[in-house]
Amino acid sequence: DAGVTQSPTHLIKTRGQQVTLRCSPKSGHDTVSWYQQALGQGPQFIFQYYEEEERQRGNFPDRFSGHQFPNYSSELNVNALLLGDSALYLCASSFSPHSNQPQHFGDGTRLSIL
Amino acid sequence: AQTVTQSQPEMSVQEAETVTLSCTYDTSESDYYLFWYKQPPSRQMILVIRQEAYKQQNATENRFSVNFQKAAKSFSLKISDSQLGDAAMYFCAYRSGRTYKYIFGTGTRLKVLA
Lengths: 114, 114
Hints:
The complex is a heterodimer. By secondary structure, chain A is an all-beta fold. Chain A has a single domain (5-113), classed as Immunoglobulin-like (Sandwich). Chain A is built from no helices and 11 strands. Chain A has strands at 5-7, 10-13, 19-24, 31-37, 44-50, 53-57, 64-68, 74-78, 87-94, 104-105, 109-113. In chain A, the strands form 2 sheets. In chain A, strands 2, 4, 5, 6, 9, 10 and 11 form a 7-stranded mixed beta sheet that branches. In chain A, strand 4 and strand 5 form a beta hairpin. Chain A is globular and about 40 Å long. The mean pLDDT of chain A is 94. Chain B is mainly beta. Chain B has a single domain (3-113), classed as Sandwich (Immunoglobulin-like). Chain B is built from no helices and 12 strands. In chain B, strands 2, 5, 6, 10, 11 and 12 form a 6-stranded mixed beta sheet that branches. In chain B, strands 3-9-8-7 form a 4-stranded antiparallel beta sheet, with no helix packed on it. In chain B, a hairpin with a 2-residue loop joins strand 7 (60-61) and strand 8 (64-69). The relative contact order of chain B is 0.34. The A-B interface holds A 33, 35, 40-45, 48, 56, 58, 88, 90, 92, 97-98, 100, 102-108, 110 and B 4, 6, 33, 35, 37, 42-47, 50, 52, 91, 93, 99-107.
């Protein structure tokens, strides 16, 4: 039973560039949430996707956008990268946004901005 | 807005001893869930234990147990018979029963001394 998988594991970009991160949810899960975890901090909620729509959003600018595909996988896109976007980006999946079951997390993508 | 506070940036415990990690939260909601997640250097967030706010009984999972004080808005994690593999960052998390958003604390780094 495959868990949550994220790609790539590590990415280096320069300021102003654009990046796309990918996530495949755990088998049986249909809801994907994205988090940004800065060094030494807890994860901060970016947004959640369910039924191919953004359902919830945290306090992040419009430079952060996403997509969910019919197979429930998801992408996180960040435009006009800033140095402050350097962080670990975590994807978490669950069975529906309303489930009482906890989220399962992937290993994350480490994004470094030069 | 809900907040989660972990006031202990770092804790140490001798192998086989017991340690308690603190967490307080603030909310005006009555329906919510609380979690403790473990994040080892491998980066993946692993669920340790969960507590439903409507349950008075403290959750227990093997060597891990919580002390849930709803009126005080406190949710501490006790690890008994600490093992070297318990060394990790521990995050306390709150999930709203209304919005289903997760809010994480800043984490406590646990060191286990042999």
